Please model this.
Amino acid sequence: MSIEEKGSISIHTENIFPIIKKFLYSDNEIFLRELVSNAVDAVQKIKRLAALGQYNGELGEPLVEVILDAEKKTISILDNGLGMTAEEIKKYINQVAFSGASEFVEKFKDAKDANEIIGKFGLGFYSAFMVSDLVEIQTLSYQDGAEPAKWVCDGSTSYEISEGNRTTRGTTITLHVNAESEEFLVQSKLEEILDKYGKFLPVPIKFGTKTVQEPDGEDEEGKPKTKSVEVDKIINTTNPIWTKSPADLSDEDYLDFYKQLYPFSEDPLFWIHLNVDYPFNLTGVLYFPKVKNDLDLQRNKIKLYSRQVFITDEVKDIVPEFLMLLHGVIDSPDIPLNVSRSFLQADSNVKKINSYITKKVADKLQELFNKDRKGYEEKWGDIGLFVKYGMVSEEKFYDKAKDFALLTNTKNEQFTLGEYHDKVKDNQTDKNGQVVYIYSNDPSKQDSFIQSANKKDYDVLLMNSPIDNHFINTLEQKLEKTSLKRVDSSVASKLIEKDELLESVLSEDQSKTVKEVFEKAITKPGFNVEIVGLNPEELPVTVTMDEFMRRMKDMAQMGG
Ligand code: ADP
Ligand code: MG
Model:
């Protein structure tokens, strides 16, 4: 075989591969993601050319195959995509990566992770050198009269292009895995990486074979027989539900997909199918899970895809903070494959995506509320936390959620904010015209206070979830002429200052003496002793903490 061309790839720098290797090393498993997605792209491109009538040859079954040869220490990625001519190799493989070499060296210092380097410099293909001593391309272009071509590069600055050996259209990339990367020469390791990044790629990815049982006629007694056959092991589902139209999907489809993503989880409460194509492209399905006690464990469950290639489950900047407990998938080609932290924070599409998701979630909740109030109330225990968190943290969400957020009272009745206002405004307006909402954050300990409030026909709200402290503050800021008081924060009779103080059966002197006795016994600051009118239904003496001290104490307990 004659060498047709030898060349040197870089003029400005000695050798950029050590730099690439060094910077990419931390997440070197992405070489497989990059090479497999290039192969998938190549297959998609030939399909498109055929559809446009620009390719009239045999298309064949689209397939990408990954082959591990542990003995030879090679990993190969094969596709029946559009292939490349020798000219195209020079253009796409040599020039693209190396035209920017000097710029690369100039800028690599600022790069924060491998994705950023790949993204900025179009080095997806070159990530192969993170794990290889030598990389070989064998390729045959779809173009009429194209000759097979071969490209070999050992990670130095020189490459060789010569006549290749592929006899069918497409490309084979063979990596000769280096000594430090032998972990990738293990079947199960490759399978794990393929599953992580390629589970939903749009072209079938074959990795080895598997044995299945197939029907094989009947035995002498007429019972069905089976035989073992070897079939291709395809590691992916090519059309996951988020690529389909909601009209074509049943509840079961959504639940099955959820099980596929989170095998050991309980069924979700409901889901939202995302589908936008303007001003950005985004599809996906978000699920509301049943809330578990251990909230932290459930965070970061949303997976981000770009054209069905898994990118990351760090979606912090794309999904609003308060929705980080949701599960599911987001796919956006507008988020580049080689997405990086700093890119996400700066990107304006990402901000739009963020507010789109907020709006969609709000619309869905409003729809559930309108359609089936009872069902919605039943779900409130699980979704209330998200909704309150959203109302506390995002103004825009508050404005929508104020119509479907529910308040629950100690009698387990549920009201919207508007309904609640109407319910209590007559009886619970104080002499300054403020409507006073009374709440309990610990009904078992505050039972006697709740009872005395109820005796006065005051309603007591239940505010005992982890977010309720903040939620109360938000309500106080947002609701006009409304204040919230904790049921035990002052004597029940004074919660709403319109009542006459009950006449005490104790004389003033007697009251004073009793008060002094209690105050001596309680030495901590911030507690108030009050002598209440002694009618048989009242607690004669109450010890309360004033509201300011209580809030200080709560804050100290929350650690900030
Ligand atoms: P990107 O995929 O972002 O363009 P890469 O470095 O991954 O950057 O690939 C560079 C180019 O090499 C691709 O755009 C494509 O033209 C070509 N290429 C890479 N792999 C293949 C392949 N398997 N089949 C055909 N062309 C390929
Ligand atoms: Mg690529």
